[in-house]
């Protein structure tokens, strides 16, 4: 297997970024100046996830939960997944457990779980409603959640039963501030 040496450069990152995601930098990057061996694709993927999470780039067309799930509602159907921040914190996801189509969900209730090489986490529904579709790709390729958590890595689609529940969720700016506050 080809391996590359990656020099950890956390010391050169602006302090605002280091302060926003300090544990992420320590875990992914290691001590500043250290050489770390990893596969080229792993280096690329980790760097991309690190930058996405550290930059706080969360799509503005969604609503977010403090537990790091998002929902994008179009024509009464909510597409649900976990944020890039959550995916980065979990690390390489190896298994995703999703509900059956037709399942009834309540806002804030667990609907599934994700397992990574280092942790497992429940996933919570940002809205109440009926599951009308699940992302079947995730059963064969759960890493899609890491690769593209806000698009191809979506988890379920829900026919929203109470659109008023969206008012209690955060917009992208508020979620970005929430993520930053978790690391202080």
From TrEMBL:
It comes from the Eukaryota. One of its GO terms (biological process) is glycine decarboxylation via glycine cleavage system. Transmembrane segments: none annotated. The keyword Nucleotide-binding does not apply. It is found in: Mitochondrion. SUPFAM superfamilies: Single hybrid motif (SSF51230). Pfam families: GCV_H. Its cofactor is (R)-lipoate. Its main location: mitochondrion. Residues 77-159 form the Lipoyl-binding domain. The modification N6-lipoyllysine is found at residue 118. Binds 1 lipoyl cofactor covalently. One of its GO terms (cellular component) is mitochondrion. Keywords: Lipoyl, Mitochondrion, Transit peptide. InterPro entries: 2-oxoA_DH_lipoyl-BS, Biotin_lipoyl, GCV_H, GCV_H/Fam206, GCV_H_sub, Single_hybrid_motif. Belongs to the GcvH family. The glycine cleavage system is composed of four proteins: P, T, L and H. The H protein shuttles the methylamine group of glycine from the P protein to the T protein. HAMAP family: GcvH (MF_00272). This is Glycine cleavage system H protein. It comes from Cyanidioschyzon merolae (strain NIES-3377 / 10D).
């Amino acid at each position: 297997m080809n391996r590359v040496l990656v020099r950890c450069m956390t010391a050169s990152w602006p302090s605002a970024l280091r302060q926003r995601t300090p544990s992420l930098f320590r875990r992914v990057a290691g001590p500043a100046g250290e050489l770390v061996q990893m596969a080229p694709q792993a280096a690329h993927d980790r760097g991309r996830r690190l930058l996405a999470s550290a930059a706080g780039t969360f799509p503005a067309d969604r609503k977010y939960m403090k537990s790091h799930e998002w929902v994008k509602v179009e024509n009464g159907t909510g597409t649900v997944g976990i944020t890039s921040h959550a995916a980065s914190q979990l690390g390489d996801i190896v298994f995703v457990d999703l509900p059956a189509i037709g399942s009834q969900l309540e806002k804030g209730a667990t609907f599934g779980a994700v397992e990574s090489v280092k942790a497992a986490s429940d996933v919570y529904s940002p809205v109440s409603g009926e599951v009308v579709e699940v992302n079947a790709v995730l059963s064969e390729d759960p890493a899609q959640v890491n690769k593209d958590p806000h698009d191809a890595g979506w988890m379920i689609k829900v026919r929203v039963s109470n659109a008023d529940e969206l008012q209690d969720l955060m917009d992208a700016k508020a979620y970005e501030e929430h993520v930053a506050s978790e690391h202080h």
